[in-house]
Design goal:
- The protein has about 180 residues and is mostly helical.
- About 45% of the residues lie in helices and about 10% in strands.
- It has six helices and three strands, in the order ααββααβαα.
- It has helices spanning about 25-30, 35-60, 90-95, 100-105, 145-155, 165-175; strands at about 70-75, 80-85, 115-120.
- β1 (about 70-75) and β2 form a beta hairpin.
- The protein is elongated, with a radius of gyration of 36 Å.
- The termini are far apart.
Length: about 180
């Protein structure tokens, strides 16, 4: 059988899947998934919390602080908001307006009985690196002269039938000189 370029040639390949899945279909899939559903719900709650917090800060003329605040619910505490900020000055400013902020949040429908503000620890500006000669160093062999003399002095002070004396004798015998 010869095929000319005009003859259609079909093979039994399955068609390519279409990429017409809408974003909401994927969100539905994630919501239904056991592990991912909880993560997605928590992420959506945090996004909603961040939006409401931004609105409340805006009403207090402090919307410029919104990008510098990480918000979340404090674990183990009911209706207690936790705000993590990057500097002590922001934390101090927020501490001053906490009653007003709680009031504004409640007006926006967010029930919050208390707010804890904490400063995020700064990342260290230094890095721990091994010494360049760390591999070249050798462990000490045996006791140095001062240590050896100290152990011998202790040995001379101990009773001849003492268990401690026997242990010190073994220590002195096993260490190279």
């Amino acid at each position: 059988m010869s095929l000319s370029p005009a003859t259609p040639f079909f093979m039994n390949f399955s068609p390519k899947p279409t990429r017409k899945h809408a974003a909401h279909e994927w969100l539905d899939y994630l919501r239904e998934s056991e592990g991912l559903g909880g993560i997605l719900a928590k992420t959506e709650d945090l996004a909603k919390l961040k939006t409401i917090l931004g609105l409340a800060l805006g009403r207090l003329d402090l919307e410029h602080l919104n990008s510098k605040i990480e918000a979340g619910w404090r674990s183990g505490a009911q209706n207690e908001l936790f705000l993590l900020v990057g500097s002590a000055s922001i934390a101090s400013r927020l501490q001053q307006i906490l009653p007003s902020l709680i009031n504004e949040l409640s007006k926006l429908g967010l029930v919050c009985s208390a707010i804890k503000v904490r400063v995020r620890p700064a990342a260290p500006a230094w890095e721990v690196k091994p010494r360049p000669d760390a591999q070249k160093r050798e462990k000490p062999k045996g006791l140095n002269e001062v240590a050896k003399k100290s152990w011998e002095d202790l040995l001379n002070k101990l009773a001849p039938d003492s268990n401690l004396r026997k242990a010190v004798e073994r220590l002195l015998q096993n260490k190279p000189k």
